[in-house]
């Protein structure tokens, strides 16, 4: 069965396009589209395009592939690609709708919607769009997304590299484990904000492999006792930043005096409890909400900070946040992947950044791998980063850090 679908994307015209012949360009697209039974419209405000295009799903997917190599526009952001029951556009091909000023953009659209979703836009385009599409077009016309695009147009430049450091005198331990450390950087002050300790087996086994050999109360005991090793290894690195540790919330409930244990381990290594940040994943926190809230008060009372890890990966992040507000939030890597070309992720992350600002929660972007992702995230005002783009985890050390300006 062939599936009728609709693609909506936003892009930016390159000088190549602006110097070219607009109507010739549109005629060529219209012809090509006709051949493939693609219909749609193209809004253009002199700088950005919004294109709605409809046809068979596989034709649209092919088109999307080709668009990325079309040098007449760049910064392509897909806002929607979904099945539709019927086409919004009556005629084949493509019509361009030039939009000149913000006022004109708004008035065009408002007049149009007032006429009940079925109207003639400039150039007499017959159009019958559904509510979802109208609202996406409306968002384009309102232009709030522009702030993110315009703030950081330059490609980040790698200014300096901090060399890796490892300690040759790393203390050994009876649990047969080690920790890899990954930097969390502050891009605004170009400084090391924290390092996160990541559990490893002595032969480099993953956290899941190491923890998989423990069950029941042994798991919680291991989870806590291993932290003393993480703290000791961190101290051996001789850096003065914060230390982020991953904990299971049940560990802190099951192991009496867990908080005292952690504070003691910090102090024995000449570190302050105020340097400690405990990371709990969204999913673990919500399934043990009562425990978690009680624990959190006691951590905070001792100067220990709390971070929600992998925010957005689980199922209850927002209801969790409405119950209590952590010191930090780490946005899950999956929400950030290729964010520079993904409209829905942009809308979500922009909203997260906004409520974190309003609630005074520090926001960390985790798992940043590409310079375009970083550039986009800088644009919405995120200052804290962790990811391969800056530095990889290093076993019992701190890897090379690349600083971007
Ligand atoms: P996490 O706390 O979210 O840690 C970040 C994970 O993302 C790490 O994987 C890190 O290596 C990886 N990562 C960082 N930057 C990038 C990037 O740019 N791209 C990609 N693809 N990955 C990146 P790792 O070390 O395998 O840890 C997996 C998870 O295991 C951790 O996720 C954490 O939830 C858990 N974990 C690690 N150490 C401990 C521990 O000591 N105790 C407990 N309870 N859980 C731990
Ligand atoms: Mn973590
Ligand atoms: Mn995480």
Task: Give a quick summary of the entry.
With 405 residues, the protein is an alpha/beta fold.
What does this structure look like?
This protein has 405 residues and is of the alpha/beta class. It has helices at residues 15-19, 22-35, 57-67, 102-114, 131-142, 146-151, 207-212, 216-237, 249-254, 258-268, 282-287, 289-301, 317-323, 333-336, 343-359, 371-379, and strands at residues 4-13, 39-44, 48-56, 73-83, 93-98, 118-121, 125-128, 158-162, 165-166, 177-186, 191-201, 242-246, 276-281, 305-311, 328-331, 362-366, 384-386, 393-395, 397-398, 401-404. α4 (102-114) runs antiparallel to α5 and α8 runs parallel beside α10 (258-268). The longest helix is centred in the middle third of the chain and has 22 residues, at 216-237. It binds ligand C2E and manganese (II) ion (MN) (2 copies). One manganese (II) ion (MN) is lined by residues 309-310, 330, 366. One manganese (II) ion (MN) is lined by residues 196, 246, 279, 309.
Give a quick set of tags describing it.
405 residues; binds manganese (II) ion; binds ligand C2E; 40% helix; 5-stranded mixed sheet; elongated; 8-stranded mixed barrel; alpha/beta
List the helices and strands and how they pair.
Layout lengths: L3 E10 L1 H5 L2 H14 L3 E6 L3 E9 H11 L5 E11 L9 E6 L3 H13 L3 E4 L3 E4 L2 H12 L3 H6 L6 E5 L2 E2 L10 E10 L4 E11 L5 H6 L3 H22 L4 E5 L2 H6 L3 H11 L7 E6 H6 L1 H13 L3 E7 L5 H7 L4 E4 L1 H4 L6 H17 L2 E5 L4 H9 L4 E3 L6 E3 L1 E2 L2 E4 L1
Parallel strand pairs: 2-5, 11-12, 12-13, 13-14, 14-15, 15-16, 16-17
Antiparallel strand pairs: 1-3, 1-4, 2-3, 6-7, 8-20, 9-19, 10-11, 10-17, 18-19
Helix pairs in contact: 4-5, 8-10
The protein binds ligand C2E and manganese (II) ion (2 copies).
């Amino acid at each position: 069965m062939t599936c009728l679908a609709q693609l909506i994307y936003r892009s930016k015209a390159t000088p190549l396009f602006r110097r070219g012949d607009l109507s010739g360009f549109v005629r060529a697209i219209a012809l090509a589209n006709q051949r493939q039974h693609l219909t749609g419209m193209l809004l253009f405000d002199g700088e950005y395009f919004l294109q709605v295009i409809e046809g068979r799903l596989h034709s649209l997917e092919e088109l999307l592939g080709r668009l990325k190599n079309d040098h007449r526009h760049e910064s392509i952001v897909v806002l929607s690609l979904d099945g539709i029951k019927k086409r919004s556009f009556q005629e084949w091909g493509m019509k361009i709708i030039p939009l000149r000023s913000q006022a004109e953009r708004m008035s065009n659209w408002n007049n149009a919607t007032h006429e009940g979703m079925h109207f003639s836009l400039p150039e007499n385009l017959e159009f019958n769009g559904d509510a979802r599409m109208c609202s996406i077009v409306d968002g384009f016309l309102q232009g709030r997304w522009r702030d993110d695009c315009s703030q950081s147009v330059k490609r980040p430049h790698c200014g300096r590299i901090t060399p890796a450091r490892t300690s040759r005198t790393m203390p050994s331990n009876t649990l047969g484990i080690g920790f890899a450390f990954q930097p969390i950087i502050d891009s605004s002050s170009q400084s090391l904000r924290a390092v996160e300790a990541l559990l490893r087996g002595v032969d480099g086994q993953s956290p899941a492999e190491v923890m998989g050999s423990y069950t029941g109360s042994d798991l919680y005991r291991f989870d806590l006792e291993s932290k003393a090793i993480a703290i000791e290894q961190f101290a051996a690195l001789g850096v003065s930043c914060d230390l982020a540790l991953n904990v299971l919330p049940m560990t802190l409930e099951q192991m009496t005096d867990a908080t005292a244990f952690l504070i003691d381990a910090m102090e024995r290594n000449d570190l302050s409890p105020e340097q400690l940040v405990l990371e709990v994943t969204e999913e673990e926190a919500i399934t043990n909400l009562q425990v978690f809230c009680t624990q959190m008060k006691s951590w905070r009372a001792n100067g220990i900070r709390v971070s929600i890890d992998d925010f957005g990966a689980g199922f209850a992040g927002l209801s969790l946040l409405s119950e209590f507000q952590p010191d930090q939030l780490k946005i899950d890597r999956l929400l950030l992947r290729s964010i520079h070309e993904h409209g829905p992720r942009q809308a979500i992350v922009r909203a997260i950044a906004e409520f974190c600002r309003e609630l005074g929660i520090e926001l960390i972007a985790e798992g940043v791998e590409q310079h375009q992702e970083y550039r986009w995230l800088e644009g919405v005002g995120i200052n804290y980063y962790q990811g391969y783009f800056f530095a990889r985890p290093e076993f019992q050390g701190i890897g090379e850090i690349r600083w971007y300006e």
